[in-house]
Automatic annotation (TrEMBL):
The keyword Repeat applies. One of its GO terms (biological process) is RNA modification. Residues 575-667 form the DYW domain. Keywords: Repeat. PANTHER family: PENTATRICOPEPTIDE REPEAT-CONTAINING PROTEIN (PTHR47926), PENTATRICOPEPTIDE REPEAT-CONTAINING PROTEIN ELI1, CHLOROPLASTIC-LIKE ISOFORM X2 (PTHR47926:SF436). PPR repeats lie at residues 96-130, 197-227, 228-258, 259-293, 329-359, 360-394, 497-531. SUPFAM superfamilies: TPR-like. This is DYW domain-containing protein. Pfam families: DYW_deaminase (PF14432), E_motif (PF20431), PPR (PF01535), PPR_2 (PF13041). Belongs to the PPR family. PCMP-H subfamily. Residues 1-22 are annotated as: Disordered. It comes from Juglans regia. GO terms for molecular function: RNA binding; zinc ion binding.
Length: 667
DNA sequence: CTAGGGTTAG
């Protein structure tokens, strides 16, 4: 190793920076400096700077081992100083393979995959011979940047250097090929010379599943000479991603030992597939097995809770977070705000929101969206202004929330002004979704003509959602002709969406055009479209109960139906009359009334009245929009039984209290 | 020579 000489110095140092050799620093050994770099310098940038100076003063910078370690420390993503790491690397004269490897890996860890590839080219040009440490990060870089040509070339280099036996390289290569959709090349690597171990097999299993080749994955999984927990987990998450949740569950059940990844794979699979109730059941099972959930699982479970209205479960998680003093970061906090807002507890949502320190735009969006769902337009707009006072830039989603708020309370002028300001003030081009909100706003307010005009002034062709909003307005205001016109377009645009058929036949039914109702029904049958069954969920004591129309699967069905009859006796005394125009088919009036009586929402309310203490609020989550009849019946129930009833439908909330609803019958 | 969290979740 060379001692300090001025000729060997990094070129940015002037000779006068270098003190004479008499300092004690020069006596520091290589070992001491390395020790310093590998301990304190990993956490303290100040120490690192000091160490850097020391290496320069003592001449140890010329030692590749020291220089490489120095680059590695500066490349620590936690310091956010990768630019300087590259600078330090530049000062290294004739870097050896060790230093090259470190800097290439550093690029990857600092989200600069293309830089990794270009540095590799420099390395090759500099005639530094790569070793087995060089390639895994390069394959990864190609995977991230989807650089197929580069990937193939790098693979060729691996072969040329005789490194294709290495397991680390193999698994990175397999992963790369699979990400390109080239499972055959991936498999060739797996079966090639050298040791393929469990991790390589697991990577291949994962690759097959990511490419949708379930059969190949199954076969490999079956015939692998050895398996570890990762093999099972790869199959489970892969099945879940392919939408094969039952298969995933089957494997999950067969496992004898499960880790956190197994649990979160299956829970997430359920959530992604929309099986929120099942996700929560598995989460509870996980608790019983004493697995300590960490933040990621908790955030996704909170999303499931929010979707089914499992307030108690969500609250439990909130307590768990506090009790374990987990950091309330933006993701977790936003999930809680969303949970409370979606469960009808704006007060709690607000409390969490206020206390949060790390708010991000999407946190504000969740709160604004929550207020919008509850029809609290003024508050939503107020928060929108506050957000700007705090110098936060609203994004597209923010405007969806604000415009929705306007739509839900009929604030036409405000909504139009906001749409206008998007482009003129915030420089955000309104997208289809924003126009959809405003079409909805105008349509609900009965301004059908204006809504149509807005659609034709849009810079893009209206999609099904926009037309759906217009058609919804036609239903509310009884515009049969326009509704029919839009409906026909919509049925061709989205022939598989049962909701569109329901809406059209609803428009006809309202106008008494039963022949046309029948036609729509026949069309659905011909096309094999099934109506989405309405269902209502209610959370009682932490357990979510789900009811369908005229459901008879609940263990307490007898009591529930008895209760329902009693409820209607009392409602009739209060002057209730069923809104039979809600029923789509031309059947006798009495039959219509029975159909209405067993709507899932009413079953859930009856169950709620039966199984909760008098005076407590009842919370219901509907998968569809509330119907007119359920709306007026629920208003009356809230008065007669003196209960607050909070119903969430597909797009908004209804707070029923003392015979009134928070939506002021505008929905 | 020194260095790899090489697979599976979010």
């Amino acid at each position: 190793m060379s001692t300090t000489t001025t000729t060997n110095l990094p070129h940015h140092l002037k000779p006068k920076d270098i003190s004479t050799e008499s300092t004690s620093a020069s006596k520091l050994s290589q070992k001491t400096i390395l020790n310093l770099l590998n301990t304190k310098c990993n956490t303290s940038l100040q120490c690192l700077k000091l160490a850097y100076c020391l290496t320069l003063r003592t001449g140890h910078f010329q030692d590749h081992y020291v220089a490489g370690t120095l680059v590695k420390c500066y490349a620590n993503p936690h310091f956010n100083n990768f630019g300087f790491a590259l600078k330090v690397f530049d000062y290294v004269l004739n870097p050896n393979v060790f230093v090259w490897n470190i800097v290439i890996r550093g690029c990857l860890e600092n989200n600069e995959p293309s830089k990794a590839i270009s540095l590799y080219h420099l390395m090759v040009a500099a005639n530094s011979r790569p070793n087995k440490f060089t390639y895994p990060p390069l394959f990864k870089a190609c995977t991230i940047t989807h650089a197929i040509e580069e990937g193939l070339q790098i693979h060729a280099h691996v072969v040329k250097h005789g490194l294709s036996r290495d397991g680390h390289i193999k698994s990175a290569g397999i992963q790369m090929y699979a990400s390109f959709g080239r499972v055959r090349e991936a498999r060739r690597m797996l079966d090639g010379e050298g040791d393929s171990d469990i991790i390589c097999w697991n990577t291949m299993v994962d690759g097959y599943l990511k490419c949708g080749d379930v059969e190949a994955a199954k076969e490999l999984f079956e015939c692998m000479p050895d398996k570890n927990i990762g093999s099972w987990n790869a199959m489970i998450s892969g099945f879940a991603k392919c939408g094969m949740i039952e298969e995933a569950r089957k494997l999950f059940n067969e496992m004898d030992k499960r880790d956190e990844i197994s649990w979160s794979a299956i829970i997430d699979g359920y959530i992604k597939g929309g099986y929120y109730k099942e996700a929560l059941e598995v989460f509870n099972e996980m608790q019983r097995e004493d697995i300590r959930p960490r933040k990621f699982i908790l955030s996704s479970v909170l999303a499931a809770c929010a979707n089914v209205g499992a307030l108690d479960q969500g609250r439990w998680i909130h307590t768990y977070v506090k009790r374990n003093s987990m950091r309330m970061d933006a993701v977790l906090g936003t999930a809680l705000v969303d949970l409370y807002a979606k469960c009808g507890r704006l007060d709690m949502a607000w409390e969490v929101f206020e206390k949060m320190i790390e708010k991000e735009v999407y946190t504000w969006n969740a709160m604004i969206g929550g207020l919008a769902m509850h029809g609290r337009a003024e508050d939503a707009i107020g928060l929108f202004s506050k957000m700007q006072r705090e110098k936060l830039k609203p994004n597209e989603i923010t405007f969806v929330g604000v415009l929705n708020a306007c739509a839900h309370s009929g604030m036409v002028d405000e909504g139009l002004a906001i749409l206008d300001s998007m482009k003129n003030v915030y420089g955000i081009e309104p997208e289809m979704e924003h126009y959809g909100c405003v079409v909805d706003l105008l349509g609900r307010a009965g301004l059908l003509k204006e809504a149509e005009e807005l659609i034709s002034s849009m810079p893009m062709e209206p999609n099904a959602a926009v037309l759906g909003a217009l058609m919804g307005a036609c239903r509310i205001h009884g515009h049969v002709e326009l509704g029919e016109r839009v409906g026909k377009v919509l049925l061709e645009l989205e022939p598989k969406n049962s909701g569109r058929y329901a809406l059209l036949s609803n428009i006809y039914a309202k106008a008494g055009r039963w022949d046309d109702v029948e036609k729509v029904r026949r069309l659905m049958k011909e096309r094999g479209i099934k109506t989405t069954a309405g269902s209502s969920m209610i959370d009682v004591g932490g357990i979510v109960h789900r009811f369908k129309m005229a459901d008879s699967s609940h263990p307490q069905k007898k009591e529930i139906y008895l209760m329902l009859d009693r409820i209607f006796e009392r409602l009739h005394m209060e002057g209730y009359s069923p809104k039979t125009s809600q029923v789509l088919f031309d059947i006798k009036e009495e039959e219509k009334e029975t159909t209405l009586r067993y709507h899932s929402e009413k079953l859930a309310i009856a169950f709620g009245l039966l199984s909760t203490e008098p005076g407590t609020a009842i919370r219901i989550v509907n998968n569809l929009r509330v119907c007119d009849d359920c709306h007026s019946a629920t208003k009356l129930i809230s008065e007669v039984y003196n209960r607050e009833i909070i119903v969430r439908d597909r797009v908004r909330y209804h707070h029923f209290k003392n015979g009134k609803c928070s939506c002021k019958d505008y929905w």
